[in-house]
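Methods: example folding runs. The two proteins below were folded one after another, and each record is reproduced exactly as written to the output file, sequence line first and structure-token line second.
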Amino acid sequence: MIRKQIEKLLNGAAKIEDMPEKFSVSFSAMPGLCDFQSNSAFALAKELKSNPFDLANKIVSDLQGNDMFEFSVARPAFINVKLTDKGISHLAKEIANGKLPQPGEGKSLYIDYGGPNIGKAMHIGHMRSFNIGEAFKRLYKKLGYNVISDIFLGDWGMPMGLIMAELEFEGTLDEYISGERELSLAVMNEAYPKGSKRKAEDETFKARAEELTLSFQKKKEPYYGFWKRLRDVSVSEIKRVCTLINVDFDLWNGESSATDYVETVLDIFKFKNLATLSDGALIVEVAEEGEQIPIPKKSPDEVQRYENPMPPLILQKSNGGDMYATADIATIYMRNLNYKPDIIHYFTDVRQKQRFVQIFRACKKAGISFEGQELWHTGFGTINGKDGKALKTRDGGNMQLLDLLNMLYEKAEERLISNGTNFDSDLKRKIGNAALKFADLSNSVEKDYSFDIDRMLSFEGKTGPYIQYTACRIKSILAKAGRFKDNFNFLQEHRAVVLELNKLWSSYMTSFTEKSLNSLCAALFNTASAFSSFYNSCHILSEEDEKKKSAHLTLLKLVLSSLEEGCEILGIEVPEKM
């Protein structure tokens, strides 16, 4: 907001001086010196073959006497801008009354995140998908998009066939099918890893698992009916976990939802002569002429090598079984049939990046994704322990999502007890979730990061609980203050907080553009820190000057609403007390 106003003033001065209107403004790299800066004089002087310092001074000379901004020039040609008291007040009012840019106005966006496989316990990778996808769903709504969210369950592949094959191997499948034995997620969690291990060791077992998978995919009974029961039990547990971590979906579809469209999709590729047979499998070529795919480096100093070309996309196995990619393409077909979204955005493990490039290209070649539709994929990194290795449970097993959540809630309880805070199960859940979400989303989305539970649960430093604690402190002060009239006659002592609020406002669009929430997290922390410094240096409730006191309280009210809004985007709940 304020940067655009400064840019308009600078370009207005450039017009007066008969110069090109090419000035841009950024936040200051030296906050102690100025609030905003423009480096445009360097490039412009080069273009005009003039002295950059003289050019900058010409621009600034036309802007003296502005009651909101103080303009100055620092060598060699930096244009520095500092807010006056009136400018600070104006900016605060804009933040209080402003509306975020609406790039999504009139556009629909279908967001696909979550993606757990049914029949298996969710692991910590699903937590990243839930956290990132949920935050972007909320951000997109804030930016004007009409959003449809879908968990898109992995419910139509080999895991279900492995569970059935393992239960059959153990001689209990018929009893589970008939209902003599009670089906539970615990049964599936035990059967799946056994079946997965047995498949790797026994070709006959593997073939039977593939046969059973094909049977329920072809809707043959009793396997299709049993598959539906497996799905229902799994979905019930997934919904319970989603409620715990403040995640919800508009749709609970899965690969199975698109199964009726698979034949239609295959016919489209065949009709357009895009599909060919290769060793009995149906494939489509998606490589583009001349492209090179970089092979990940093992070290930064290693020479970059390339893989060429992009491998073909397999649409159907040689035995007629569906591929995951086929289900994904059929799903895009189904979504366009039912919703015609302008954008479809997927969030998955970064290792699936190439797969989605293949799928998107295939959909565009076949016309399944219509002209003008945007297909986005955001890949996220993995979570490791403090030692850089995969997280493990106390007994050394692989860390599951519920293990992680329970560990966080236990640690949150310990922290609350040590602080002498009265709490209930809901408060420790909110604090545990805030610690988890903030730590997760503070990192650049594609990067791996280390999970340090003690650090992320701290009530000090760059953590979710610190943001919550700051908001709770402001709530307490405002409750004690009682009713007051908003007063935006802000002073220099309010400057640092207002400027951080402005950066917080800007971080929404930065996060949108970069497709990563770390900018928003950093801005929330910096705003909370700036408030803490203000709080420690100013008398608020004891201030005798009523006008000054009301200005202080107006600032607190603005900080609280801004922190709550940012936390709401991240899926963090702000409690009343901590």
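Second run, written to the same file directly after the first:
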Amino acid sequence: MKQGLQKFGKFLSNMVMPNIGAFIAWGLITALFIADGWLPNAKLASIQPFMLNFLLPILIAIQGGRMVGGERGSIMGAIAVVGCIAGVTTFTKDGISGTPMLMGAMVMGPLGGWVIKKFDAFMETRMPAGFEMLINNFSVGILGMLVAIFGYYIIGPLMDAILAVLTAGVNVLIKNHLLPLAAIMIEPAKVLFLNNAINHGIFTPIGAEQVKAAGKSIMFMLEANPGPGAGVLLAYWAFSKDKATRQSAPGAFIIHFFGGIHEIYFPYVLMNPVVIIAPILGNVAAITWFSFTNCGLKAPSSPGSIIAFLAMTPKEKMLPTIAGILIAMGISFAIAAVIIRATSTANLEDAQAQMNNMKAASKGEVVSSEGPAVLAKDSNQIKKVIFACDAGMGSSAMGATKFRNRIKGVRPDITVKNTSVDTIPDDADVAVVQVTLVERAKKSAPHSQIITIDNFLNDPHLDDLYLQLTTGDAPAVTSVEPVEEEKKAISKDVLLRSGIELGLPSCSKEEAIRHAGELLVKQGCVEPSYVDAMLDREKLVTTYMGMGVAIPHGTAEAKETVKKTGVVFTQYPDGVPFGDEKANLVIGIAGIGGEHLDVLASIAGTLDDAETLEKLKTTDDVDYILKTIIGE
């Protein structure tokens, strides 16, 4: 049920998010030019009802139609929602009258896309040659007309009635001073990705009607207030027992409070679900204050930044509005502090992974490597396999080398290479990527089969892929021993004696990555900013490879800060926690060209020898490291 709600909420949110810029434009026009605005101008204010009643619903419907039915679906969605709008909209001497069909757009857009998708599937084997253009164009026209008529008579009036009931319910809550209880629904809804659907699908139409009468609406303040989430982040900053969490909280606070990206604090709630009580009570207090002081915004605050929130605030309500934000922040902070200090907290990395899995599940994506990776076509037709990571520099290079060595003797016709996830070649038959990079891989390689893995070295999906490529069967046959490639000569300047540190004490993942980065700086390989890029890369997707090996490196954008190719080798006999695993070898890399790939290939080759790998993890002999990796 939770996954169903998450998937539904994310689907609705994905219709709204690409159009936030249009919401901001409408909000600014409203805040600036209505009669009670900052710069009253009746002529310019006349733009805003057209944007609310027509532009925003059409944009949402286009996006919803595209998500379900592609480009033809987007056209169907636009046609369909216009019928819905026409069913409830009238023009009077005072302007446009009618309920904004934002909720209607969230229904009609996907419906239009679904209709044309089903039609196209039906016609796929029935299309007469030479009539493609005629049928394709007339099908959208005829089916669009029929769905628009359905929207005019059914969906438009239905959504109008639903919104009328919701408005009446809100008015009852306001009249009986119960509106603050809405926070009990709003804050948990954020974690389920329902916040945009609630905020823009329900609160915005109700608020827009209230703005017509009063010049402002408290409905725009219910979900967008940055105070509750900010209080949670401040509490973790001050009282978390986990060093990594304390260090990450200030940056998250800035992104949340000033950038308006509320999603940044969700993992901090997921670390300790009891903490959700803090933003709920903080928002209850804020809504109570806003009701008591008769506050409201002139238009939606999108995104929920303090900057956007105050930009939509009437001049005379600026101080009470700021006070309400601070009240929410203070109460949320106080309650979260007590909970954090009194209860145990999960690891932030695990919570972020949990949220990534929730997001992936809400989109219908694979969230783990469970189950076999089954090829979609005959294995004999597979000629190119690409291993792709964020930068195409480290993780994928080692994965590709190990898989290439493994399969070469059985399928020499298969090319195995590595690259950035954003530059997967068009002729790739199979792209192997980590779960969190699936969407980027799909955009980069729409015609390739995507195989998702958890790590590049010993993931069961790689075993599945190997067995199918070598036998044509699903898993359950004996693997063939890997064929060793002739070892390439490696430049001795890439891995220096001074870049090897053995017997280091265990520390946090962030500390180990930073230490490796600082070694690269000392070697003159990179600029100091590369170290932060290594930490940013780790947040995107882990560089833990499996088998006790991690290879942290910078993001693709940080390549310009690399002065020369270099590799540093740090050994932690007791291990460094990388999520649920421990890395004994943390190998930092920075590459120009492909020199570092030879080092990684050498390291990958040692992974097939368990005895050598274990000695690398425990030896105190620097000469052994150099001899094993570069043959010095």
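Comment on the second run: Confidence is low (pLDDT under 50) at residues 361-372, 474-489.
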